[in-house]
Amino acid sequence: MASGSRITTLPQTKEALLKSYNARLKEDVRSMLENFEETLKLARRESHSQISRTTQCEQDALEMQIRASNMVRAGESLMKLVADLKQYLILNDFHSVNEAITNNSQLFRATQIECDRKLMKLRDEMAMDLYDLEEEYYTSIFK
User: Fold this and answer.
1) R_g over Cα of the chain
2) HSE of 24 in the Cβ direction (CA atoms, 13 Å)?
């Protein structure tokens, strides 16, 4: 890889890592949503089965607890994913930082060159004006 070439695509490992983060995010959100919907269904269900009402309530409560724990696990997984993404951004954003530094350096260098050019022009104009004044002074009849 040439040092002057500009890379616009992510290296294969970073791209794969971002895809895995995306897959984890979708799976965790899907799991939370599915478990939440099932918990709501269990809470609204009216039993018309042959199981006794007490047994059915115990079974529904147990299933709701399991689904709630699944939602908590998915939430914890999402928090871990956020931490992983923060770490990824911290460790892998050097290209953006370097690009911003390079852009700013180029901008400041261009501004410096423009200021130097204007100062040189001003210096030359002042030198010409001083030369004219000096010549006018020495050729003046009012000395």
Assistant:
1) 37
2) 19
